[in-house]
Amino acid sequence: MTIIDSLEKFRKKIETEIEAIPSSDKIPLFYEPIHYINRLSGKKIRPLLTVLSGLAVGGKIENLLPPAAAVELLHNFSLVHDDIMDDDDTRRGKETVHVKWDIGTAILTGDGLLGLAYRKLLSTPNITDLIIARLFTDAMLEICEGQALDKTFEERKLISESEYIEMIQKKTATLIQLACQIGAIVGEGKDKEIQSLTSFGLSIGMGFQIQDDLLDIFADEELLGKRVGSDVLMNKKTIISIRLSERRGKPVDDIKSVDKFRELIQEYGLAEEIQSIADTYFVKAREMLDKIAPNEYRSYLYDLTDYIQNRKK
Amino acid sequence: MTIIDSLEKFRKKIETEIEAIPSSDKIPLFYEPIHYINRLSGKKIRPLLTVLSGLAVGGKIENLLPPAAAVELLHNFSLVHDDIMDDDDTRRGKETVHVKWDIGTAILTGDGLLGLAYRKLLSTPNITDLIIARLFTDAMLEICEGQALDKTFEERKLISESEYIEMIQKKTATLIQLACQIGAIVGEGKDKEIQSLTSFGLSIGMGFQIQDDLLDIFADEELLGKRVGSDVLMNKKTIISIRLSERRGKPVDDIKSVDKFRELIQEYGLAEEIQSIADTYFVKAREMLDKIAPNEYRSYLYDLTDYIQNRKK
Predict the structure, then answer these.
(1) Tens digit of pLDDT for each residue in A239-276?
(2) ipTM
(3) Using an 8 Å Cβ cutoff, are A195 and A201 in contact?
(4) Residues of A with CB below 8 A from B128's CB?
């Protein structure tokens, strides 16, 4: 039994929480695509992190489900809008919203997901102050800034590794950090626990994105649910394109096939090198988990870290 | 001196509050179009309503400026995304964001405006609970639902007047209602005052949209800042197209020029009829204002009602 199977009962609860939004019958053009994207089979890693972080510090599941759903809805908002901007036609093996419907509908779907995310967040039973709403808003803006940087970098031939690190922190790691942080806050953890889990989230978030860059080139296409190489071939800046540019002493925009990328990565031994950068983040993540008291839920968080580190999709 | 001139000092303060977001130097692709749309010369009616509603019940200006800015940013979010969906190329006499930049940038600009709106709202100095954040979120979702209805109606030949009323209430009146409501709440008005000002906002919002439908056909194009007839010729459902369809006993989609619309409106005496529907809402709005105690700011609210009722753009 994998960790993903063990967490099935939590995933089911999260799905039920997300389903509890207005049905598609009410203004179908608005709610159908919202339900469509929410029901695409994701692993629900982010809301699971919210629930487990909260439970690990003694929180109650009924308090944790609304913010967990909010985190997933925020994630889906960014997916739908990013897919338009990147002109991606498949997501999790299915047509993206702007392909299945149209761009206008997809814009509205993303907006709706964001509104529903706030509504869920603000319904968290044991929170009456503004702290999580502020953190959520800051994270949402960071995600937008990260997407803007990602778009800006596409126009440039070379970017530095520190620019890349800033971009993935905003675009990817911030949301995973937020997931853990608001879980710990809603779980009413002590300040030290909240800090440790926030830092844990940031580290797995960074590791997650670097893995993602590797999977863009090395994953099985069917497993990945989208075209292999779609990032590097679109001139997206990934850790792979940056390190490869450095080694070759020139940009990678002349490389027109995934096979050629694989060949060069092999030649320079980059896959192992990049995996070890990701691994460093996962080591840091585990050190942060070591700081909170052991219990069943903390064990799940270690297992989830292993899973993310070794995932194939 | 018009009411718009008298309110210049408040408008300046609102503009300063809106400008106090990160500068364009920080991630230009993200912040430049945000500042561009915020600086387009709008009348700032919605944030003025927030400020005046709050002051009218004894609120402090420094508390009212952040929620007023939030209302304007929420409005601008919806303009930028709606302009993409409606493929409008001018707004307030200037190029729309997706024309000046591109669709991807305009999507991100709208998202950013919404995030900044929440950040402003959550910085309201005298509010520590979740009430205004919840109202704001409900309004944001209503606006999206209204836009979805508007899009859905474009595909249909005929819609009923009650469907139209539901659509404009969500799409337009909700935001104007919210502007007054959160002004009254942040101004720490009594429950009765909050109710009266909320109802006032709803009524002027309804009147405002019906006027807008008239202006789409009868405004001076230069004054309006966008093409005259752009709604009816795009098959948008307005009170004009609905009543005209009723009178003729058939849809209006065969009418291909604004002149022809004007001719038929004249023939059926529809302009006066529709103006009188709008006027009914403005009468109701004034009755609501009558319920709060008289002061300088309430007078401005009456004047603003007159201005909206008689506006030419």
Answers:
(1) 999 999 999 899 998 998 999 999 999 999 999 999 99
(2) 0.95
(3) no
(4) 129-130
What percentage of chain A reaches a pLDDT higher than 70?
A: 99
Q: pLDDT averaged over chain A?
A: 93
Residue A32 near chain B (CB below 8 Å):
no
CB within 8 Å of chain B, chain A residues 92-151: 103-105, 107-108, 110-112, 114-116, 118-119, 122, 127-130, 133-134, 137-138, 140-141, 144-145, 147-149, 151
Smallest Cβ distance to B148: which of A30, A119, A122?
A30
pLDDT in tens, A21-31: 888 778 999 99
Longest dimension (CA), chain A: 57
Map out the domains of chain B with their CATH numbers. Answer: 3-310 (1.10.600.10)
**What is the C-alpha to C-alpha distance for residues B295 and A104, in angstroms, rounded to an integer?**
45
Q: Are A204 and A305 in contact (CB under 8 A)?
A: yes
* B177 CB neighbour count, 10 Å cutoff: 25
The answer, for A20 touching chain B at a CB cutoff of 8 Å, is no
What value, to the nearest 5°, has the Cα angle with vertex B217 and ends B308 and B179?
Answer: 30
Query: Which stretches in chain B have pLDDT values below 70?
Result: 1
